[in-house]
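Quick log. Single chain, no ligands specified.
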Amino acid sequence: MERFDSIDLGNYRGDNYFLVGYVEPDPSGYDDYDPAEDAENYGWSLVQKAESPLDENDEIVRMDTRHDQPHLDKEYLPPDSNEEKKVWLDDDYSYRRMRTYLLQNWQDFADLHIYYNE
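-> predicted structure:
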């Protein structure tokens, strides 16, 4: 998928966070690209920015339409967790609804990431 949008969320509990929206196929050939109309797949991810440019960012949670149905991936869970990592969502989760959901809940997911990983 190709990066389509980004929202800086600022600093929370000492770390910087942002949302990144992505679409498939690549929107470079479209003047008025609308994910709801033009994308085969789309999604948003909450990301904790790396402290150093040499380190990788940490994806905390991802919502997308891959696998033919909207879902949420709990990337913050450790590999040995007994909790289900994938949560299947209703078909009406649009690109904008995913963005809105993550904007409203990102601090809760950041706290879960801190709890499980730091």
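The mean pLDDT is 91.
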